[in-house]
Design brief:
Number of domains of chain A: 2
Helix content of chain A: 55-70%
Number of helices of chain A: 10
CATH class of chain B: Mainly Alpha
Largest sheet of chain B: none
Distance between the termini of chain B: 19 Å
CATH architecture of chain B: Up-down Bundle
Shape of chain B: elongated
Structural class of chain A: alpha+beta
Oligomer: heterodimer
Number of domains of chain B: 1
Order of helices and strands of chain B: HHHH
Number of helices of chain B: 4
CATH topology of chain B: Bromodomain-like
Largest interface: A-B, 15 and 15 residues
CATH superfamily of the largest domain in chain A: Glutaredoxin
Number of strands of chain A: 5
C-alpha cells in the first residue's frame, strides 16, 4: 500500500513538474517573441511585401508563409473570411518564409507573377493545386507551371522575371526578418505587431477580434 | 532465529524494490526530459536520439509492472533495453566529442547527430544526459539483481 502511494505520488510530481515547466517555457517564449516584435517593427513590415486590404486599415495581419505549407493553405481562406467579415478594417501583409526545400523557387514565380499584376490569382491557384505540385511536401517547380496557365499570365516573361536578383533579395530579406523575429514555423501571424500566444485558428481569431475591438473603442 | 531471517529477507526485498523504483524514476525523468526537448522546446530529435528514445521510453512502463506486484525478474527484462540504449548513448557522446569520425556517422538526412543543440556548463549535452541516465538505470538494476540473488 505504502509503495503504491509512493509510486503514484512520484508519478504525479513528475507530471506536475513537466506541466509547470511546459507552461513556464511557453509563456517565456511568448513574452520573448512579443518583445522581439516590439523591439524590431522594421523586421515586421517591409515596403516590398505583397499586401491586400485597405492601405490604412486599423488592423494589420502580417503572415509569414510558405506556398508549399499545407497549414498556410488551410489558413488562407480563414484569414480571407475574417477580412470579408470586417471590410476595410483588416490588411494582410504576406512575408515569405520558404522553409520547404525548393519553395524559394515557387516564391520567385509568385513574385514574377506580381510583376504582371497577378500575384493574388497566382497565389490562389498555387494553393489550390498545392498537393499536385508539392507531392510529399516536396515542391517541384516543373509541376507548378500548369497551375499558372489560364490566369492570363505571360509565362515566357515570368520565366525570365523569376530569376531577377531583386526577387532573390526580397526572399533573403524576408528570411532574415523571419530569423530575427524567431519565426521557425509557417504560417506565423503577427496582428498589429503581436505574435500568436499559441498556434491555432482560435488564438488568431481572438487576437484579431481584440485588435478590432480596441480600434472600435478609440 | 526464524523471525530474524524473515525480517532480513523483508529488508532485502524492500531494498531491491527501492532500487528498481529508483531506476524507474531515472527512466521517467529522462523520458519527460526528452519529451520536453522534443515537444516543448521543439528541438527535432536526430536519428541516434530516436534510437535512444526507443530503449528508454519502454522502461517507464516495464519497470512498474515489476513493481506491482513485486517481481524481481523485471530486472532481466529491463536490462537488455537499458544496455542497448547505453551503447547508442555512448556512441552518440563519442560522435559529438569527435572521437568517432564523421564518416561513420549514420545520419544522412534530417538533423545531424553531431550537432550540439544544448550545452550547459560547457560540457553537459543531451547525449551526455542520456548516457548518464542509461548508466544509472543499469547500475541500479544490476545492484537490485545482485541484492536479490544473494
Amino acid at each position: 500500500m505504502n509503495r503504491k502511494v509512493l509510486f503514484i505520488a512520484a508519478a504525479v510530481v513528475l507530471l506536475l513538474v513537466f506541466l509547470v515547466g511546459t507552461l513556464a517555457y511557453k509563456s517565456e517564449k511568448t513574452s520573448q517573441s512579443v518583445q522581439l516584435a516590439e523591439r524590431s517593427p522594421a523586421n515586421l513590415v517591409r515596403m516590398h511585401s505583397p499586401t491586400i486590404g485597405k492601405q490604412d486599415a486599423p488592423v494589420v495581419i502580417v503572415e509569414f508563409f510558405d506556398p508549399a505549407c499545407e497549414t498556410c493553405r488551410e489558413f488562407y481562406p480563414l484569414v480571407k473570411m475574417m477580412m470579408a467579415a470586417n471590410p476595410d478594417r483588416i490588411r494582410l501583409v504576406l512575408r515569405y518564409a520558404p522553409f520547404h526545400k525548393g519553395s524559394d523557387k515557387v516564391v520567385s514565380m509568385l513574385e514574377a507573377a506580381r510583376k504582371q499584376g497577378k500575384f493574388w490569382p497566382a497565389l490562389e491557384a498555387l494553393l489550390a493545386g498545392q498537393t499536385d505540385w508539392a507531392p510529399h511536401h516536396t515542391p517541384q517547380v516543373g509541376l507548378v507551371w500548369r497551375h499558372l496557365e489560364g490566369l492570363g499570365l505571360n509565362l515566357e516573361q515570368l520565366r525570365v522575371d523569376m530569376t531577377a536578383p531583386e526577387i532573390a533579395r526580397v526572399i533573403a530579406q524576408d528570411l532574415e526578418d523571419a530569423r530575427a523575429l524567431n519565426v521557425t514555423m509557417t504560417p506565423e501571424y503577427f496582428v498589429n505587431g503581436k505574435p500568436l500566444p499559441s498556434f491555432g485558428y482560435a488564438p488568431l481569431k481572438k487576437l484579431v477580434d481584440d485588435a478590432l475591438n480596441e480600434v472600435h473603442r478609440r | 532465529m526464524n523471525t530474524t531471517r524473515f525480517s532480513a529477507g523483508m529488508r532485502n526485498e524492500t531494498t531491491t524494490w527501492s532500487l528498481i523504483f529508483a531506476a524507474w524514476l531515472v527512466a521517467s525523468i529522462s523520458t519527460l526530459g526528452a519529451l520536453f526537448f522534443g515537444e516543448v522546446m521543439q528541438i527535432p530529435p536526430c536519428v541516434l536520439c530516436w534510437h535512444q528514445r526507443i530503449f528508454m521510453f519502454p522502461l517507464v512502463l516495464i519497470l512498474p509492472i515489476g513493481l506491482f506486484p513485486f517481481d524481481r525478474k523485471v530486472v532481466r527484462y529491463a536490462l537488455p533495453l537499458a544496455g542497448i540504449g547505453w551503447l547508442f548513448a555512448v556512441f552518440h557522446v563519442l560522435l559529438v566529442a569527435g572521437v568517432i569520425p564523421e564518416s561513420i556517422k549514420p545520419c544522412t538526412q534530417g538533423v545531424p547527430c553531431s550537432q550540439t543543440v544544448i550545452e550547459w556548463f560547457g560540457f553537459v549535452t543531451i547525449p551526455l544526459l542520456s548516457a548518464v541516465a542509461f548508466s544509472a538505470v543499469i547500475a541500479l538494476l544490476v545492484l537490485a539483481y545482485s541484492r536479490s540473488s544473494k
